[in-house]
């Protein structure tokens, strides 16, 4: 008679002696006993325990009190997926955070700080400490960046499609790698929030910068991104002939495909052109702009010269107290001068944004005495070409006409800066732009007075005193043909007519020319608040091509069309 162990018979692995498994047990004489009994020895053996555990697991799986191996493997796989997603989300979060702050993804920093990598994120820190793949290669990073780009653009395109109409804005420049690139933005009315939105769509690399290539790229990418060309209602560019040309410019080529995509010249660029033309026509203003550019670059081009100026900036001076005593009212010029008091350096003049030059001029006036002392020291310590240039800049700062033109330019440009900032707002529409320009025009005309210039003359006299000169014009001999030389009795009258009035008059003339009242009337047709103030037939007679859009019963469509018209290129320029 043989005995078998059910556990070992079914779940044995064949490595035992077979007595309780395949062969069976029949040595009954030695079956019992605590030490030598075969039954007790088999019960305590590892092979029997393993077989019993397998049997118990089978029973529990059959009773559904324990998951089977497939479920366990599936659960482990699910946990791995969740873990990998958490790791990818942590990496994407880092990429998005760096992108929002304009920080390089593969930049370098001190080795001492590398131990702090990902300390803020426990999941990412554990992942980076592991020996497996980290998904940090340039290829993976670029793929994740592309995924983020696609996701954002799809959301923008969906919102734009719900808005029905949209406009495009484009600006071209050369990046640091000397590649021509075009930034593209779209403007539309958010259907849910009922507000104007401006969104960046992407950069387009240009192989050529002619109108045909630029227009072709714009149309190609709009189609690629899923935006209907037929819904395009406006184009916003700068005034360059390539973009704004009426014969073969970009705006003309795009209108051949979308006839209702009317071109709007960037109003911020328009204002910049107002300043540019005025500064070039009025000779004293033109001269101080050129000379200040040379002066600031002379200082900033050398670390040694910058250190000399930096030392002077920390010395005490009561110049600003004397200047502010002259101003009885808190005007725009005085505010900028007070802001410039906290700056401990001078900045080069912007080559393209002329309205931004007022900040540099304010810093020079505020630190005029310190800057003059620094130029003096540079002249004393330098030799050769640097010494002669420093001497030329010192004599320039001691020129009465330079001082007077500097004060006048800062004063007038200070009134233009608020309009510049207003035109750069995303929610600025065409009617607001024209209203702000007309308000500025009235303000400039109101300050064209002897009283206003008398304060400027006193301000210039304070600057002249700190450089120890008399505020008198240089003696002129003979008949002048290359400069203004009015018949006046004093220096104050001379500069009031030849600099202050001349500069103000030209700025006002340019403002009236570039922000005409007639265009404001046309833009009012798209403003619901102005519906009762606009004569529809009069507007249509002046703006015949748009009559089919403006005079339709679809009031909301008309509003959307005019609201998506571009006012400025600020969104594009911030990206370039």
UniProtKB/TrEMBL annotation:
Signal peptide: none annotated. This is DUF4371 domain-containing protein. It comes from Mytilus galloprovincialis (Mediterranean mussel). PANTHER family: 52 KDA REPRESSOR OF THE INHIBITOR OF THE PROTEIN KINASE-LIKE PROTEIN-RELATED (PTHR46289), DUF4371 DOMAIN-CONTAINING PROTEIN (PTHR46289:SF14). Residues 23-249 form the DUF4371 domain.
